[in-house]
Amino acid sequence: MDDRMWKGAIIIMKKEVFGTLKDGTSISLYTLRNARGMEAKVTDLGATLVSLFVPDRDGVMRDVVLGYETPQDYVDNTCYFGTVIGRSGNRIDKGRFEINGKTYQLAINDNENNLHSGPDGYDKRKWEVASADCDSCIEFCLNSPDGDQGFPGNCRITVSYTLTEENELVLHYGADCDADTVVNLTNHTYFNLGGHDSGKVLDQKLMLTAKYYTPARDHQAIPTGEIVPVAGTPMDFTTAKPIGQDIEADFEQLKFVGGYDHNFAISEKPGEMKKMAEAYCDKTGIGLEAYTTCCGMQFYAGNFITESKGKGGVSYGPRHGFCLESQFYPNAINQEGFASPLLAAGEHYDSTTVYKFTV
To answer: What's domain 5-358's architecture?
Structure first.
């Protein structure tokens, strides 16, 4: 018998102890597999994607996401490797918004703004496992009480990971709340198609389907409210090019945030599944296609990855991974021209993002 657990005729995915936090909380690690040999490891701390093994052109399995060796490392570091972000991803101007005539104030943790809902994010919490009754799918859930992080309403969040036989990792998000609130869930995985231990991603090629992006007003990365064309600028990835080709260009938007860390407009509103990106590594032959039902995507080139030890003692640093974070546009709750992340009481939040790997 292998290391999976059996329950009657149903195969329950592999579960193991990932580690213990300083406060004594035990954290588990779950392994998803498909018949083609692809494997994902996720943990109940932050509903985090820890590892993702995909075959390269020679059939060698390579872990293509950045991650840490222990759960305490995830708590101690601030790069959000592989974690689920909520209740609202990205930035909210001055951490403030209004719903039904009432102003809500969130923590200020990024210059003068709120980033990823503040220091007490969903990434630092232990989630419950709602279901894990096969080798290839797991669902996590989290109850976020009224006032949590400063948001109104008791909110139940679900996130599932499914590994398909087409080498797709499918992330499905759901949320229900008993009051009008903001919900903008995303995942902060850093990809490196050369392998998490291969250094910088600047030579890896990227194509983004977006013809428009939302420029930032300054170094604090809050959008101006404009939606402008990428054509004729270093922001244009509509034809595949190396991530590093224009990253140091003399272009104000890149100088504001030390490279790429911008929202690209996939569509005007969420709901329809659309391709948002393709990426490829010449050295390994590994390709990535990304799809989402969201209207926006934050492309982050890892400009500020802190020097740290990752899995297997590997040293990580700036631009060792890139993020494709499906989302509502940043600060959308305060921008009338952006699709709204407001979830009305009794309505259901639903979004799906797919990362498909090819070789």
So the answer is: Distorted Sandwich (2.70)
